[in-house]
Model the fold of this input.
Amino acid sequence: MQKNRERVNTLEKKFTEQLRTRRLVREGDRVLVAVSGGPDSMAMLSLFCASRPVLHADLGVAHCNFQLRNSESDAEEEFVRIHCNALGLRCFVERFDTLQCAREWKKSVEETARILRYRFFDRLLQEEGFTTVATGHHVGDNAETMLFNLFRGVSLSGLKGIRARHGKIIRPMLLLHKAEITAYIKESGIASRTDSSNMLEEYDRNFIRNRVIPVIEERFQHKLMPSLQRLSEQAGELEEFLELYFENLAEREPGLSLCEGKLDVAALQRLTPFEQKEIFKRALRDMDAPVDAQALQKLVDLLSTQPGRVVMAGRQLQVVWKGGSLSFQRPSEGQD
Done:
């Protein structure tokens, strides 16, 4: 029992030190902790409560009920509410008609849930005065995200995976392994819920988590996670360099920044293929369009054709070479 308590204290101290040394939470911050009711988020909430006397941060909890599993989703919501009440924490809950939104937006259920979740967080930040939102992503989640992005065909910098901070979103568990979290939950006696949908392999992330990663780890023991972590850090550093490089490039060449939905063809043609893809990647993001290797290559190839040509960048965006510009537009906008 004593050893268990020591391990618990060690992890709580490690968590608190990470928050302070990485400046994820500062004294007086108001932190909104995203809690699903699963082991990872319940462990994170407990760790935050343990760190509160040191950090002097105000805590609140956000729970998303995506209504995808009927009574199970409702039971998780009630579980989180009761737990927050016992801790004396405010609990903000939002229910979503996720399936209906997915149909209307023509997106996957996974992507739709992600969009709904972060819109909810943004609203709470604005309306309730929280300074940051904490999510429970850990080392395994980062590896899963990197592999998921790799299979989707992202660019090299896209392999940065999950960052410890992105705007007002923080991931304080990102250096913790699943085994550490599981042990902490068990040794601290923290109750949690199990999401049965995590076992459904029709979702790509679940397939990667439950089938792909275990096979790789069995073959290359203790190598996958450290290797992906290093790659993630290097890709993050590369992304920072590229952002600065292309900010400077756009200042020198105004036609390389999306203006009124257009990019200058001549300016693009003076660039290397790598630079062209990076410019296109930023343009697609500005248009809220999917970014993948196939779409980027089609746009690069377009520059080798002639005015009047049109390519589709995803299902909802077309790029037209008209005059001296590439025009990014929705099909319904016409080709003025």
